[in-house]
Amino acid sequence: MKPAYSDSRAYVELHLTVVLWGFTAILGDLIQLSALPLVWWRVLLTSLSLVAFVRVGKMVRELGRRQLLVFTGIGILVAAHWVTFYGAIKLANASVALICLATTSLFSSMLEPLIVRRPFNWYELLLGLFILPGIWLVIDGVEAGMNQGVIIGLVSALLVSVFTSLNKRYVDKTDPLRITFVELAAATVFLTPFLLLLGSNGFWPTPLDWVYLIVLALLCTTLTNILFLRALTRLSAFAANLTVNLEPVYGIFLAYFLLDDAQELTPRFYLGTLLILIAVFGYAAVKRWFRLRGTVPRG
Fold this sequence. Notes:
Layout: H1 7-21, H2 24-30, H3 35-51, H4 56-91, H5 94-101, H6 104-117, H7 122-140, H8 147-170, H9 176-198, H10 207-232, H11 237-244, H12 247-258, H13 267-292
Helix pairs in contact: 1-10, 2-5, 2-10, 3-4, 3-9, 3-10, 4-5, 4-8, 4-9, 5-8, 5-12, 6-7, 6-8, 6-11, 7-13, 9-10
């Protein structure tokens, strides 16, 4: 008999996903392409990697027009998120882009109840607001020339909260493999016209870029998206987003040693990072306390 997919297994797979996502900013910094072609190659390679596992004709018939349009729309949001995320890396650095993503919980605390149609939790909003001083310190702790990267990074975090909540709402409509394929294929199609406007200049990856792109597409995208969507069938989008906020921990740690990002950041940046991460771990503690009292529903 096949074992049930439990909450504990969902959390394990979610944390494995976050560890792998911690490498994406490093790879994005190492790849010489600008943000738009980088993301286009990423979604194209990921989509191609899934073709062998998805029977496209049967999938289209079973999903129907409405669900295809829903997942296509979410795929466009994913594309916009990745372009802004890698844009933040190019405009600032990997550490700044990663810590901006940790503000996702602030946006999620306000947007998920509206999108998923569940009641607001006051402690989620409170912990989300606790992140605001951290954001201010992060902005104050970077060079003035990086401020544009911070703003783009915050936009990227907003987009994450929206498409994660939408995925949470519709994830039970089909299996994660199909969702990933439709969303990233839609992202590829959506980005192609913008890519054509850039021409061939800066379009082709270098030989080393190809290696990084393949790792980014297969390991850090195909595998992680499937695991993440499967975890969402058991966990709330807010809980998932807060776990995803651990991505900066892994990413900044790697960037510190591999990319020399520390030379561009001040102690205020790391103090802001600390406040944001306190909110991340505080959520788990607060939710556990309420659950033990029997006052918080599972999820």
